[in-house]
Amino acid sequence: MKPLSLPRYLLRSVWLALLALACSAPAHALRIKEIAAVQGVRSNQLSGYGLVVGLDGTGDQSTQMPITAQAMSNYLQQMGISLPPGASVPQLKNVATVVVTAELPAFARPGQHIDVSVSSIGNAKSLKGGTLIATPLRGADGEIYALAQGNLVVGGAGASAGGSKVQVNHLSAGRIPEGAQVERSVPTPLHGGDSITLGLNASDFQAARKVALAINARVGQDAATALDGRTVQVRAPLDPGARVNFIAELEELQLPDSTPAAKVVINARTGSIVLNQAVTLGPCAIAHGNLSIVISSTPVISQPNPLSRGQTVVAQKSDIAIQADAGQVMQVPPSPQLADVVRALNTLGATPQDLLAILQAIKAAGALNAELEVI
């Protein structure tokens, strides 16, 4: 039996119907949890100084890193072992000094485990196969909030022999999954007062207004008030359990679609340019030409005459050529949509590096209706 085949005109009708259905489908609306968070519910950064032991001769060179030997001596003294007076500093090739960092999440309780990152601060060649000994992690206030220890997971690999070296990825940093145990919790002011405050990820008065309207439509009038373009204050239940349920319902509330502020983000280091959907172009005329300078050197050999006892002299002859491409004035039509803006910029035939200067000039001329942000 042959498979059924539809006529070409019928297939075209089916595709048109599917396309119309996709265009008519409502866009995914944002939820409050995607653009805002409860103020006070935040993580805290922890850091500490420690030692990684058990390396295969790839640790710090003690002559160039005396703090490694000093830190190891302090650790041995805590274990009840001290070097005899006048003893030379040991060469610890299997030990490396490291900085340990971690992020203490909100509501973390003593006994819970968090991931830690370990980075070498000395001249260790590799931390692969090493073990981090007990390292206290401190917060910004100097108090100890976690204790880290465990075997490192290093994603790189390398080998060297006979003066040759091969390395893949990074060998002087690694992670310890669940390598730190929380010793102290950070109080979170979630249940204080009769209201909570939502902080928007970006300052936008329209977004703050829509968040307040969505909450009032769900909870009741005057339950939420937009204090400014980034803060919304909401009355919340006093009971802790009821407040948690209230916040969970608020985070799932959907917001009506809104057009973000027009912005063009430029990365001057890499030449990357990103435009959002609100960027528009006004009519303008652009002239862009390239100037290239080529410098070439040719060796010139000067031979002395026979029997003149002269020496052969090698000199360099440099040629400089300057070429200026003919620039032409191109008219850019008004572009009310992002696709039109991209099409207009592509007609210039400029590289991303050239577009950095062109976009800034268009903005200065008042034809680019967007905010320029250079990162």
TrEMBL record:
Q: Which InterPro entries does the record associate with it?
A: Flag_FlgI
Main localisation:
other
GO CC, sorted alphabetically, is: bacterial-type flagellum basal body, distal rod, P ring; outer membrane-bounded periplasmic space
Query: GO terms for biological process?
Result: bacterial-type flagellum-dependent cell motility
Task: Give its localization.
Answer: Bacterial flagellum basal body
Q: Which UniProt keywords apply?
A: Bacterial flagellum, Cell projection, Cilium, Flagellum, Signal
Q: Which residues form the signal peptide?
A: 1-29
Annotated Pfam families: FlgI
Query: Could you tell me one molecular function GO term of this UniProt entry?
Result: structural molecule activity
Q: Which family does it belong to?
A: Belongs to the FlgI family.
Show the HAMAP family listed in the entry. Answer: FlgI
- Give the quaternary structure: The basal body constitutes a major portion of the flagellar organelle and consists of four rings (L,P,S, and M) mounted on a central rod.
Function, in words: Assembles around the rod to form the L-ring and probably protects the motor/basal body from shearing forces during rotation.
Q: What is this protein called?
A: Flagellar P-ring protein
